[in-house]
Amino acid sequence: MNKKFLAVAIPAALFAGSVSAYDVVTSDSTTVALSGEVGVKHTTTTGATESSVNEVTGGAAVLNVNVKHSVNDSIDALGAIKFEMTSTGDDEVKATGRYFGLSFVGGEHVVKFGSVDHAGTVGLSHLKDGDDEVFPVDGSKVLRYTFTNDSLTFDASHSERAAGVDDANATAVKAVTSFENIEFTVGHSQRAKFVQTGEETDTVSGVIAEVDFAPVTLTATYSVGATEGSKEQDDTLVKGAVDYQVNDDLELSASYAVQDTEFKNAADTDKKTAKVGAEYVMDAWTFNADLTDVADVSTEALLKAEYKFTDQFKANASAKTTSFEEANKESAGEFIVGATLTW
C-alpha cells in the first residue's frame, strides 16, 4: 500500500474517534475502510436542573472510499466519498466527504475541491474560545491547497455559498514552520455571514509560538479578531501555557488567557481564564484532573478516569462541579459513567 498516499489523501477526521479501521478493499489505487463507534453512559446532574439519564451515545459507522490514480510519475488524481450511518435521532445514511483532487511531486502539493475542511483559525474564534480549530463553516464547496515539506506547511482554503440565512463565504490561510526546538503557527481567516439583520464579516488573525525545552514546553498565543456589520466588536486574546512531562506516566499543565472584547453598542468585557491540569497513566488506567477559573464568573473542577480493556473497548467515569460567583446562581454538578466500543 502506498503510505505516502494514505497520509495525504485520507484526512484524520475520517477516522476520528476510532482506534482502528477495517480495510474492506485495499490496493495500490483504492482503499475502502470501515470504522465506527458506539457507547453507553449514565449521566446525573445536580443543581438548578436535576436529572438522571441512561442513553446510548455515539452510535455511528463510517465507510470511507479513497481513490488514487497515478497520471504520471509526478501527478496523482485523488477522489473520496464517505458514507455515514448514524443511530441518533432518525436512522439515516448520508454521503459526505466527497472531493476531487490532484497531488503533485509525491504529495508535496495537494489541491482538493469539495466537502473538505477549511484550513482553520489560529487563536480566538467568535463562535467559541480555543486554539487551532476547524473553521466554523459548512465545507460543502471548499477549494483547498496544501504545500508540505520538511520545514514548512502552508494551507489555504476558500468557499462560496449562495446568500441566505446562516450561509457564508469563507477564506482561511495558515502556515506552520519550525527550526530546532521552536515552532511558529500564523494564520488569518475571514467569514462573511448573511443573517436576517444583514451581513456580518468576521476576521481572525493569530500567531502561536511553541518552544520545546524537554521535558518542558512553553506556548504563547496572540490573536486579534473583529466583527463588522449588524453586530460590531473587536477582540484581543493573549494566552500563555506550560506543559511539564514529569516522567513517562505524569504530565502537568497550566495556562492563563486574557480576552478583551470591545463592543460598539455595549459595555466592554475582560475575560481572564486560568487553568491547571494533570494526567497520570498507570498501566491500563488514565486519570485526569483539571481546574478552570474564569475570574468573577465561575470555577470548574473536573475529574476523569478511564480504563482501557483493549484499544477498542474502554470504560470511563467523570465528575464535574461548577460554582458561580453570582450569589443567586446555584452550583451545578455532573456525574457520568460509561463505556465505548470502537472499530
Q: CATH-wise, what's the superfamily?
A: Porin
| Strand count | 19
The share of residues in extended strands comes to over 45%
C-alpha termini separation: 21 Å
Give the mean pLDDT.
81
What name does the CATH topology carry? Porin
- What's the structural domain tally? 1
Biggest β-sheet: count, sense, barrel? 18 strands, antiparallel, barrel
What's the architecture in CATH terms? Beta Barrel
Contiguous uncertain segments of 5+ residues: 1-19, 126-134
Helix content: under 10%
Over the alpha carbons, how many angstroms does the gyration radius reach? 22 Å
Order of helices and strands: HEEEEEEEEEEEEEEEEEEE
Question: How would you classify the helix and strand content by structural class?
Answer: mainly beta
Shape: globular
Please write the CATH class name: Mainly Beta
Count of DSSP H/I helices:
1
Main location: membrane
Keywords: Membrane, Signal
Membrane topology: Multi-pass membrane protein
Pfam families: Porin_4
